[in-house]
């Protein structure tokens, strides 16, 4: 099974990248299932119903998220209309809306997509290690397990990789918006990348217009951040997973720069 995982889509710029490229990538790479992180989908902050439906129309099958999912109250409408397609981090305290995992059936193979969130340099929510341990045990019968670990610290992500080694198909990091070049497959068949990156404007500070972010760092006063528009790029990871045992056969970064023609892999895209 071939799965495309798209790094955090940031605002209108990110959605435009998807519109221009996603169907072509699905066709060329024979993708069976598309997962995207949508925490920054609408104006960089959270998700609204019409923007969510827009990216579904481009070919996204499932969405993970993170700390920014709560920025726009309209998440309620998305959770209500698409409860099986949108996933928020599992380890928020009980009673928080939405769900932390969802099961999909692709070509008669079941997969579970789970979203967890780190606690290092982030909100001190429930323990992601304990939460995912319980979730994996609960869904032991599902062979293919995809995990989006939305976290800031590389150490927390690496610790989670070794905690989950041999128990999940892949652990994909999100949240930093900067793609790392450390993709690997452990001997147990669990694949990993510290961060899948960002889909949106790269002439920016992680997707937002530069000047307001610089002013914020200079003064520590609040500034209104707006989505940047230039140098549009697509960051993702393509996974090939063995349906029989859930192990990753191949993990590859797939990146596209809209300024250039065609699709290239990894560093060659830039
Ligand atoms: Fe993000
Ligand atoms: Fe985030």
Low-pLDDT residue intervals, each spanning 5 or more residues = 263-270
Mean pLDDT: 95
Q: Count every helix, treating DSSP H or I runs of 4 or more residues as helices.
A: 6
Bound molecules: fe (ii) ion
CATH second-level architecture: 4-Layer Sandwich
General form? globular
How can the largest sheet be summarized? 8 strands, mixed
* Range of helix content: 10-25%
- First CA to last CA: what distance? 28 Å
CATH topology, which one? Purple Acid Phosphatase, chain A, domain 2
CATH class: Alpha Beta
Hey, roughly how much beta strand do the residues contain? 25-35%
SSE string, helix = H, strand = E?
Answer: EEHEHEHEEHEHEEEEHEEE
Question: Quick one: how many beta strands?
Answer: 14
Question: Care to describe what's here?
Answer:
There is one protein chain. The chain is an alpha/beta fold. The chain has a single domain (2-269), classed as Purple Acid Phosphatase, chain A, domain 2 (4-Layer Sandwich), CATH 3.60.21.10. It is 25% helix and 27% strand. It has 6 helices and 14 strands. It has helices at residues 11-28, 49-58, 75-81, 128-138, 154-164, 210-219; strands at 2-6, 8-9, 33-37, 62-64, 101-106, 109-117, 144-150, 170-174, 184-185, 191-193, 198-201, 232-241, 248-257, 264-265. The strands form 2 sheets. Strands 1, 2, 3, 4, 11, 12, 13 and 14 form an 8-stranded mixed β-sheet that branches. A hairpin with a 5-residue loop joins strand 9 (184-185) and strand 10 (191-193). Helix 1 (11-28) packs parallel to helix 2. The protein is globular, with a radius of gyration of 17 Å. It starts with a strand and ends in a 5-residue tail after the last strand. The protein binds fe (ii) ion (2 copies). One fe (ii) ion binds at residues 39, 66-68, 150, 175. One fe (ii) ion (FE2) binds next to loops.
């Amino acid at each position: 099974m071939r799965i495309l995982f798209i790094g955090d889509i940031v605002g209108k710029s990110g959605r435009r990248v998807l519109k221009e490229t996603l169907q072509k990538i699905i066709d060329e790479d024979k993708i069976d299932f598309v997962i995207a992180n949508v925490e920054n989908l609408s104006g960089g902050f959270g998700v609204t119903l019409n923007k969510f439906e827009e990216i579904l129309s481009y070919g996204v099958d499932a969405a993970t998220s993170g700390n920014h999912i709560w920025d726009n109250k309209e998440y309620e409408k998305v959770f209500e209309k698409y409860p099986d397609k949108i996933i928020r981090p599992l380890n928020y305290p009980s009673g928080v809306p939405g769900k932390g995992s969802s099961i999909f059936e692709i070509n008669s193979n079941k997969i579970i997509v789970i979203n967890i969130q780190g606690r290092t340099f982030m909100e001190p929510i429930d323990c992601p290690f304990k939460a995912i341990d319980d979730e994996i045990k609960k869904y032991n019968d599902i062979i293919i397990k995809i995990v989006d670990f939305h976290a800031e610290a590389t150490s927390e992500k690496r610790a989670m990789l070794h905690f989950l080694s041999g128990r999940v198909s892949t652990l994909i990091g999100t949240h930093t918006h900067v793609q790392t070049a450390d993709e690997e497959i452990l001997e147990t068949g669990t694949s990993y990348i510290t961060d899948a990156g960002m889909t949106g404007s790269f002439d920016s500070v992680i997707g937002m217009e530069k000047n307001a972010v610089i002013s914020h760092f200079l003064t520590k006063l609040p500034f209104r951040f707006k989505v940047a528009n230039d140098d549009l790029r697509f960051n993702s990871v393509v996974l090939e997973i063995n349906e029989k045992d859930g192990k990753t056969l191949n993990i590859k970064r797939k990146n596209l720069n809209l300024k250039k023609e065609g699709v290239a892999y990894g560093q060659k895209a830039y």
